[in-house]
Amino acid sequence: MDRLTIPLPTGVACASPDATLVERGEGYALIRSSRLAVLHGCADGQFYRSGHNSWSPSGWNDLAGPPLRIPTDERRATADDPAADDTVRHHGSWMGSVVDEVDGSGVLVGALEGGHPRVRADEDHLAAFDESRPALWLLAWGSEASIFDAYVRFLSDRARTPGRAPRVWCSWYSYYEKVSWDVLLGQLPGLAQLGFDTLQIDDGWQKGVGDWRANEKFGEDLGARASDIAALGVTPGVWVAPFIARPGTPFLTEHPEAFVHAPSGELAIAGYNWGGPYYALDTTHPLAQEYLRDLARSLVDAGIGYVKADFVNAAAIDGVRYEADVTGDDAYVIGSRLLREALGDDVYLLGSGALIIPSIGIYDGIRVGCDVAPIWKNYATEDRSDAEARNAFMTSVARLWLRPLIDCDPDVVFFRHMKNLLGDREISWLQDVAAVAGFKSSSDPLEWLTEQERSEVAQWLARRETVEVVGRTRFRLDGRDVDFAPGLEEPEHCYPVS
Questions:
Q1: Which of 357, 250, 244, 227 lies closest to 301 in space, CA to CA?
Q2: What's the pLDDT band for 375 if we cut at 50, 70, 90?
């Protein structure tokens, strides 16, 4: 049987025997196929890795170098796709690109539809495959800008309208799980005056991860707290992790059958946090679906207008489900759509830990990097998914091409110098990447800010910058040239006090 073959300027693409050429145009082809291999001719070039979820390392890496990956099994289970890990070959989720560093030309292969699309690359080949069913692939060739623009163009039909991101104050990076209503109450009027239009209570308000009732620190009444926030003209927001539960929480204890299981029959571990494992809701199970609807209704009834749905990648883990033929990526979409529909379009839905391409058209925004921290580089770790400002910055910069498709949240920025090991240059990089992304948020408590810093926050929130893309890392922000390349370089010093 003849295979579908497409000549390229620097090589050739060849599809598996089941391939169908759906459409071909100038610089691109749409191919439905279970496998697609490209002889790219860019041995000295770079590979663009699209990580599995929000926290997964993403960005450009030399083809001749080692793959960008998370080094430890436990962390990989939480922040990447363990089944797709490859210690030798470059690899990624849903799409990948290879670009020649000399002339800037390259090739991109990206899935538009699929059950579990993945890519791999080495110095000779760019391979795309979906072992669950034939995927619909975009094969694009040309300049780096043109091939990414082509992928955005073909994905745009499914996108919600981006650009409605609120100005968010989030409790996490100041109070963490020790947050309480007494602590927040004194912040509210001042935060509203600075220009924050949304106050998002993060982890620490609930009885447990998987038990989404307000705890005693919040008067066991989320609706009352939301009303207090709304009375100041600020949208009440809340953190939930809708697709996971920790041991001992009511729904997991009463209905373990509604969770993903390992082939051995035990509950499948979705990841590790809070000092132990957590488990993933089986979004194909009727009881799990009703649980999600009830959770969403409870948030809407409480008056919540902004939901940060965290650890949502857990819905996609490998395992045994009620509907056995549903892939992890499909299960993620099922759960995410159900959550979206139950919340309604008036609630802003942010996904963290989100699968990148499958989230488009469902979530209003997604986190595009790992957690930030008030430290640029932690000398004790080389894990690109660890909570560091540099890690969050690098992955967020690499994903700014997604801006036309979905709101991109690079995580909070800092204005405070109190309890902060970041220098002014690093603080400005974080502020600028948030401005380019169009998603502005902070966690700085008022009492940690000087009067000058409060003024800077207010001015930053008030600006609605115009953004022009100049290059891979270069932008024009309200006419000001911004280049993020220096922030992607290895820092001169490993120690934060250097």
A1: 227
A2: very high
Q: Which of 477, 367, 400, 391 is nearest to 148 (CA)?
A: 400
Is pLDDT at 212 greater than 60 in this prediction? Answer: yes
CB atoms within 10 A of CB 463: 12
Backbone angles phi, psi at 150, to 5 degrees: -65, -45
Please tell me the distance from the alpha carbon of residue 246 to that of residue 223, in angstroms, as a whole number: 24
Pick from 165, 195, 169, 162: which is nearest to 460 by CA? 195
Compute the average pLDDT of residues 416-432: 98
pLDDT at 189 over 80: yes
Least confident of 156-170, 179-193, 270-284, 311-325: 156-170
Phi, psi dihedral angles at 455 (to 5 degrees): -65, -40
Q: Which residues contact 79 (CB under 8 A, 6 or more apart)?
A: 53, 55, 56, 70, 271, 353, 370, 385
| CB contact at 8 A, 416 and 404 | no
- Report the alpha-carbon distance of residue 437 to residue 317 in Å, rounded: 29
Pair 230, 303: CB distance under 8 Å: yes
Question: Where do the structural domains in the chain lie, given as residue ranges?
Answer: 5-158, 167-488
Q: How many residues does the chain have?
A: 498
Q: Which residues contact 295 (CB under 8 A, 6 or more apart)?
A: 212, 240, 242, 342
Predicted local confidence at residue 498, as pLDDT: 46
Residues 267-298 as b/e (b if ≥16 CB within 10 A, e otherwise) read bbbbbebeeebbbbbbbbbebbbebbeebbee
pLDDT of residue 3: 87
Separation between Cα atoms, residue 281 and residue 284, nearest integer Å: 9
Distance of CA 16 to the CA centre of its chain: 31
What pLDDT was estimated at residue 161?
Answer: 83
Provide the 3-class DSSP secondary structure of residue 122: coil
- What is the structure's pLDDT at 162? 76
The one-letter amino acid at 279: Y
Structure tokens at 90: 């470059």
Cite the DSSP H helix spans in 163-217. Answer: 172-175, 181-185, 188-194
**Contact present, 365 and 348 (Cβ < 8 Å):** yes
Q: In what order do the strands lie in the sheet with 474-477?
A: 467-469, 474-477, 480-483
Q: How many CA atoms lie within 13 A of 411 on its CB side?
A: 30
Query: What is the domain class of 167-488 according to CATH?
Result: alpha beta
